[in-house]
Amino acid sequence: MPRLVSYKNFILLAILVGVALMAMRFTHIGRQALTPMEAAIKDGLAPVQSIFMQVGHSFAGGAHSITSLGHMVEENKELKEQIALLKGQLYQQEELKRENERLKNLLQYQDTYSEYFETKTAAVIGRDPGNWFGFVTLNKGSKDGIVKDMPVVTPSGLAGKVVTVSDNTSQVILITDPRSGVGALVQDSRVPGVLEGTTAGSDETRLIHVPKDTQLTKGQVIITSGIGGTFPKGIPIGRIVDVSDEPSGLFKTAMVVPFADLNRLEEVLVISNVFNPDILPSTEGD
Hints:
alpha+beta, 6-stranded antiparallel barrel, 2 domains
């Protein structure tokens, strides 16, 4: 019961305050001063008005903060998107720079050997994951003048030869495949041998059938011999890293690391025409 009386008193007080405020509003115009009662009421209500003003400012400030927070979240999202875009552009520019350097090296190679043989540039578009150093697929085929047995090189050295051709693609067996065979020479001593791949998945080759009394040492450069007619004479192949005797005891074997980075082939040159295989320039390898 006392609580009900308290609510009634509060409602009555609010009505009286409202009436007083209305009276002050309509009687204030045109007067120079307030009556003593008006002044007392106004002074008494001043703290209440101050509280209402503070509450109103707090609500306004809170609403402004929420709005500002929303804008900051949106701006942060936009900035992250811009940073991601800029990073993508930088990566793309770096990739274009690297591609330009590779193509520049191919062009220089073509210019250097232009009087000895004609080449066609091709891109590697596939390789066997199970035999990474066995075969690669190029984006050029018979429509581009590619035929079987054409040698494939990089500016660093021999890569392999074409073994199958379709209209728009060709398959290349790399010199690291065990089924590959290349007539080769030790550059400084002119000792001949046959270069073949070792085991599937290896990036090394070996020079076999080298007479036992031949001096083979680490660091010697191996080049193509021209024997067999498939590969022009003088193309650098690789460098000897190890020498051992064959089980028969009649020959030596030399492990050879190719100059061409066959693990990361992207663009290659296909030798489509040899003008004069007997006058190829001397080569020093890498």
